[in-house]
Amino acid sequence: MAKPKFRELRRSYGFDEVAIVPGNITVNPDQTNIELKIEGFTFTIPVLASAMDGVTDVRTAITLSKLGGLGVIHLEGVQTRYDNPDDVLAEIARAPASEITPLLQKVYSAPIKENLIGERIQAIKKAGAVCAASVTPANTKRFAPLTAEAGADILVVASTVTTARHTSKSYEGLIFPKLRKLVSMPIIVGNCVSYSSCLELMQTGISAVLVGVGPGAACTTRQVLGVGVPQITATMDCAMARDDYFRESGRYVPIITDGGFRNGGDICKAVAAGADGVMLGSVLAQAKEAPGLGYHWGMANPHPALPRGTRIKVGTTGTIEQILFGPASVTDGSQNLVGALRTALGICGACDIAEMHKAEMVIAPAITTEGKFWQMAQGRP
Amino acid sequence: MAKPKFRELRRSYGFDEVAIVPGNITVNPDQTNIELKIEGFTFTIPVLASAMDGVTDVRTAITLSKLGGLGVIHLEGVQTRYDNPDDVLAEIARAPASEITPLLQKVYSAPIKENLIGERIQAIKKAGAVCAASVTPANTKRFAPLTAEAGADILVVASTVTTARHTSKSYEGLIFPKLRKLVSMPIIVGNCVSYSSCLELMQTGISAVLVGVGPGAACTTRQVLGVGVPQITATMDCAMARDDYFRESGRYVPIITDGGFRNGGDICKAVAAGADGVMLGSVLAQAKEAPGLGYHWGMANPHPALPRGTRIKVGTTGTIEQILFGPASVTDGSQNLVGALRTALGICGACDIAEMHKAEMVIAPAITTEGKFWQMAQGRP
Amino acid sequence: MAKPKFRELRRSYGFDEVAIVPGNITVNPDQTNIELKIEGFTFTIPVLASAMDGVTDVRTAITLSKLGGLGVIHLEGVQTRYDNPDDVLAEIARAPASEITPLLQKVYSAPIKENLIGERIQAIKKAGAVCAASVTPANTKRFAPLTAEAGADILVVASTVTTARHTSKSYEGLIFPKLRKLVSMPIIVGNCVSYSSCLELMQTGISAVLVGVGPGAACTTRQVLGVGVPQITATMDCAMARDDYFRESGRYVPIITDGGFRNGGDICKAVAAGADGVMLGSVLAQAKEAPGLGYHWGMANPHPALPRGTRIKVGTTGTIEQILFGPASVTDGSQNLVGALRTALGICGACDIAEMHKAEMVIAPAITTEGKFWQMAQGRP
Amino acid sequence: MAKPKFRELRRSYGFDEVAIVPGNITVNPDQTNIELKIEGFTFTIPVLASAMDGVTDVRTAITLSKLGGLGVIHLEGVQTRYDNPDDVLAEIARAPASEITPLLQKVYSAPIKENLIGERIQAIKKAGAVCAASVTPANTKRFAPLTAEAGADILVVASTVTTARHTSKSYEGLIFPKLRKLVSMPIIVGNCVSYSSCLELMQTGISAVLVGVGPGAACTTRQVLGVGVPQITATMDCAMARDDYFRESGRYVPIITDGGFRNGGDICKAVAAGADGVMLGSVLAQAKEAPGLGYHWGMANPHPALPRGTRIKVGTTGTIEQILFGPASVTDGSQNLVGALRTALGICGACDIAEMHKAEMVIAPAITTEGKFWQMAQGRP
Fold first, then answer.
1. pLDDT of D2-28, one tens digit each?
2. Cα–Cα distance, C361 to B227 (Å, whole number)
3. What pairs with residue D20 in β-bridges?
4. Do A199 and D1 touch (CB under 8 A)?
5. Residues on chain A touching D102 (C-beta within 8 angstroms)
6. Mean pLDDT of chain A
7. Which one is the CATH code of C34-318: 3.20.20.70, 3.40.630.30, 3.90.190.20, 3.90.550.10?
8. Where does chain C show beta strands of DSSP type E?
9. How many angstroms separate the first and last alpha carbons of chain C?
10. Which has fewest Cβ within 10 Å: A107, A272, B99, D256?
11. Nearest CA among B290, B293, B268, B270 for reference residue B281
């Protein structure tokens, strides 16, 4: 019997498994440029806040925009289901762990009020902030026009996995080229994780892509469905799609790595892997201004029949400004994320994000030296 | 001295080490077909319940069949050794951990009563359910005719490792082609884990193969004997044997991955690896109807001299229907397993199980992000 | 600057990282032959007891021999330093953990009494047992003649690392071909872990080789010196040296994997990797007859300046006979080791140890399924 | 669509992931030569003490020098900011964990007193010791002349990452060839981790290179910035740069692996990987004479806006002499480091450090056997 050629699987990597190699030249961090451009818009810092109810509401979207980033408000969450979402958010924060899944299932079964879509968008715009609003593919045809009408600047169409092609008997799939004609604003689409699905999305003409399936701290997609690709590999593959598409079309479609970040190191690694921007959930849920009141939970996931999220206690550590710009009062990398990114660029000799994409990385399991030393030390007088 | 060519070992993978990559097209989960066919029988869901005493008895076999799956009753367990097995099951559930191995050794040393074989099978058949009954290879010649006579639909011949060829001085090995002639029903044989042993079994004419040695939660075969192959590799290798055998013979012999499942994600991965069906132990032992009363233990393993099983407390979480079809009240993937499988097919753009076999997988260690985040958060106010 | 060709390291494997693949044919375990031959001696089971004071004394050496194996008594431990070693062993067992290293340093600084060498050997011989006695290379010239004179059957010359060549100004290195002429009995030498050092040792004419540096439960060589090769790789490499030497010389020199075993699975894996026999420390220190009274510690390692051992509590689980032949009352693989080995041979279709050397193995990290399941279950009612 | 060629990352290794393979010949440890030469200076042991405030002050620098090694005093730490640094060190040791980062930020914001630079250097010189003093690149032009003037023997220029080229608008980068002309003493520069950056540094004419970014027990650079390469790979790559540079120029520039060491095994592995010397932090912070009083913290890292260090309790275990030369009273490898290094050389048949560079290493995850055995044993009577 001839030896069969066994099926082989490719190895993928997450944040904990890689490290960035310093460059041969160093640059003063103050001289680095970390801008993110999405069609007409330029953000001075490449940071988006997740379209999750514990992270982004009207207030935090305004704050983020003033600090140079972008908050994305979810149009199918508590902000548009409740006139007074703060009461609901407080209820979620107060609920004991054992009751949280049924509570979230109940909270998210309330109907979306179309008038609130306009109100939330206008509140953000009135403050002079850039407004990005998020809808799911299934509801895009219904909500996108309302979003445009209310004056939103950027439309985000996102679900766990969104592809350029969808097969369904019950409704016609969302056709992105049609959507581009329907609304005139930039469209960010997600999420995807593979080279080919990212390339196909870019070819539909959309403005930016969200990268990430299953990595988030509040997401249990990998346990429930077995689906997901670790963020470093997902980012590297989608960055290659972006570069190939740019060579082919002349159009540069930025990719935004979305989910799984815990500290500045993770952000630096995503950028070294090829990300043009990052979308933060748990990390910003720790902000004093965060609507989650120290808690964070999966947004698309209070599914009535197959819930895939979980509520985690993230605590409250500092203001959004302190988390992004410091000064840090902790040394675990969860504060001064922008300073960390600039410092990493400097260490790698990168003047901007495009140069940082060329930084070398190695596979290097998360350091445990410190923990071990402690253990060793504890057994002693 | 010339450099020697060192012996090299192949890497194998288990559920925790892989993840499924979403496809380039998505399909509405409601439109997916997840049927499993075993010779004349078609099951609307590809789920078998293990031939283990904590999982399958007459009642759960009936329930499983009505829900579209198949429960396999073990003909050498408490169901055929005791007129009133429920008393024994309660005793096992009540026993303290320190006394469980001797108790199981005692319980399983009681003789098998041949009349009970017929009674159990007829009870299942009387309820209109499909009846599958399991025997070990050593007892097959003795019990298979009784099984056929009592009206069972499918015969399962299984032990830790079963091969097409067996060498023994004390008894003539089981010859599967002969067995096929002896009983006219479909025969499922297991367990095996390698390409060549699976191929040889298929070549004997049997109807389906159980794949898995050593992975189960209640199994300690790998510690005791060092033998076993992780389920993803075992499934991929046996799926290749099935496909090669189909090309060679034109006969499609389904493979059923048996053991080690903890959640929907594991099931989805097994199918992506090539499984036509899955056999669940611990997961179904958690059912309210489960005979194990919240406990689960190795079946073939209360060996009088070399026990290789262990009793684990799995708890009770919901009805069989809820575990299989939801709605899920937990987010860890242990409920609505069928919904999870359909959703994963949809995300991979697969209309049926055969298409899901082509889904891409990557090697991706189990996510620990959440755990780490918690740890990080706990050190804070 | 041209890309440098980086130094690459070879991956090595330990017991926890591999698993044995079942064969295409199965054999009745009762029909397997697991003999080990060392020159003129044939042992019905391939099990040696370590030359460690917590494992082998006169009584256990006799018991082991009667059961078909071989106990190796250390001639430089408490047995030859104290007329009444049992008192010293009891003192070691009673000492609190914080005082154990200085106590061992003191205990092992007492002088060796040459008369006790003869006494211990004769006590073993008088009982009709095969007697193997162990010395370190530095003391071999002094003690080997005494050992021969007292009637020992097999001489073991072992230290952490022993090579065919040694450079020293202070004393002439041990020359094995000379030693073979000096004493007429078989000589087992160790320890080594690499192909080339094993081959060189075999070429000196010695009778068997001990394989293993740094793996033992009571050994901290890898922490202290950074030196050591995991046992599966060490065994595979030395087995290749044995096979090459056999082809070259026609002389078959068995290799005995020494150290790191915790259960039957480890023993089966060592044999599948190429071992002709195994030398057990911690596992036999758990015997009711063990001189260590439930404790085990490194033998060569109470070094006055650089101690590399540690005392571990192994507990007491059963008699030597029960540990080797069962029946097992536990399911963790620590009892009925011989039964486990025969069963594994049967599952792999191997009639004897030589055939088991051809069993396929895969790289497969230790299973953690059970642990995880428990964790999962604990969060539930 | 053609299959894209995915970006691939190279695997890197740390101390815990490798092990040294014994040689085919052994050497008496007493005959090994472990000298380290840095331009005119010869050190009988290849050990440097880190330029960290918990490790090196005037007293420990003197002790180290007398024992044959080299302590490096940091000229930008508490020793030059405070007339009476011992008070400040005691305050750091007393501070509760929750207040340590702000305290360190405050302590290190006090100005450096130039007169103390001279005083500290002269105190070391007056005792007859070799004096090495460390500055950061940004302050080198200002402090280097003072250092030379005060009579220091060796200048160390070090920061997290130092390269031969630096881009900044605010100040002219440090030009090493110019610095060599400015001060006549040997210059050690660091830190770097890659082949090319190490080679470029050597080509500037400096005397030795410090290797290591992010490995230290008191360093959180990898979490905060994602930057760092594990020490074995960093050492192997820089050793290759050293060897290539030696072939190219005829000048041998030693490399000193700096950071992450916990025991003798780590030191032996660094040397086997190619290190000419090692720089120890945490391990020497455990000395009775250590200024840190049982604590250790990152030196360059009390950054006012982005702190990357942490204070860890290392405890106090023995004198510097005992840690370096034994006798060891513990068996975890943290004492008698020099004895361990000589023993490892002996086991590998290496007469000196250059020969030890040729020792074979294998990839071998840290042993956990002992831990597992304990766990196993605990569940028993």
1. 677 889 999 999 998 999 999 999 999
2. 9
3. C227, D361
4. yes
5. 329
6. 91
7. 3.20.20.70
8. 10-11, 18-20, 25-27, 36-38, 41-43, 47-49, 70-74, 132-135, 154-158, 165-167, 187-192, 208-211, 255-258, 277-280, 295-297, 311-313, 361-363
9. 64
10. B99
11. B290
CATH superfamily of D21-318+344-378: Aldolase class I (3.20.20.70)
Which residue in the set C25, C239, C367 is minimally distant from B163, CB to CB? Answer: C25
Q: Helix, strand, coil % (nearest 5) of chain D? A: 40, 20, 40
What pLDDT shows up at residue A304? Answer: 72
Contact status, residue C176 vs residue C71, Cβ threshold 8 Å: no
For B195, the closest chain A residue by CA position comes to A4
- Closest approach of chain C CAs to the CA of B260, in angstroms? 7
D217 close to D262: Cβ distance less than 8 angstroms: yes
Q: Which chains touch A (3 or more CB pairs under 8 A)?
A: B, D
Among A95, A338, A172, A56, smallest CA distance to D225 is for: A338
Low-confidence ranges of chain D (pLDDT < 70): 1-2, 170-172, 217-219, 299-302, 367-381
- Residue D274 CA to residue D268 CA, distance in Å, equals 10
Q: C-alpha angle C222/C226/C229, rounded to 5°?
A: 65
Nearest CA to CA, how far is D117 from chain C (Å)? 38
At C165, which amino acid appears? R
Query: What six digits make up the tokens of C275?
Result: 């071992």
- The span from the CA of A303 to the CA of A107, in Å, is 11
What local confidence, expressed as pLDDT, does residue A34 receive?
98
Residue D367 pLDDT: 54
The closest of A206, A75, A81 to A150, measured between CA atoms, is A75
Q: Which residues of B are catalytic?
A: 219
Q: What ipTM was estimated for this complex?
A: 0.92
Quote the pLDDT of residue A143.
96
For residue range A221-256, what is the model confidence (pLDDT) as tens digits?
778 899 999 999 999 999 999 999 999 999 999 999
Question: What mean pLDDT comes out for the span C309-320?
Answer: 89
The shortest CB-CB distance from A22 to any of D12, D102, D192 is to D192
Q: Cβ contact (<8 Å) for A9 and B10?
A: no
In this complex, do A361 and D12 lie within 8 Å of one another by their Cβ atoms? no
Alpha carbon of B364: minimum distance to chain A alpha carbons (Å): 5
Is the omega angle on the peptide bond into residue C177 within 30 degrees of 0, that is, cis?
Answer: no
Give me the active site residues of C, please: 219
C289 and C63 Cβ atoms separated by less than 8 Å: yes
- Structure-block tokens of residue D60: 């420990």
Name the pLDDT band for B376 (thresholds 50, 70, 90).
very low
CB contact under 8 A, B226 and C268: yes
For residue B356, the Cα-to-chain-centroid distance in whole angstroms is 19
A151 backbone φψ class: left, alpha, beta (φ>0; ψ -120 to 50): left
| pLDDT, greater one: D306 or B370 | D306
| CATH number for the domain running over B15-378 | 3.20.20.70
Tell me whether residue D31 is exposed, middle or buried, using C-beta atoms within 10 angstroms of its C-beta: 0 to 12, 13 to 18, 19 or more.
middle
